[in-house]
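User: What would this chain look like folded?
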Amino acid sequence: MTLQELYQNIGGNYDQAIRVLRVEKLIDKHIRKFTKNGVVEKLLEAGSRKDPTEMFECAHAMKGVSANMGLNDLSEMASEIAEEYRAGNPRKMSDAQVDQILSDIAARYEKTVAGIRAYEEG
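Assistant: Here's the prediction, encoded as structure tokens.
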């Protein structure tokens, strides 16, 4: 499987990743690290505890990493959570809506991780 095929399989935006990282070797390096950085797991854990500060911090980090990697669905969902819990912003979503977004993040992340693992196996 090529890197472009991986991106197609996981619904990523390869062109965006190449614009940001410039060379395929860096995309390969960072996509392999993506499953090991733990930010999604930390966000989901913070969400289960309803820790607003940690949810913001993790979602903000996840948004940036995902956007740089061309993983737009993950980035957009993380952005929703980050804005919901940004200091000074009034809450606009119910806890049930936040839980749904976190569930969607978990499902998209699982699909992404499965694709990356298949890519790594070759």
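The radius of gyration is 15 Å. If you want, I can go into more detail on any region.
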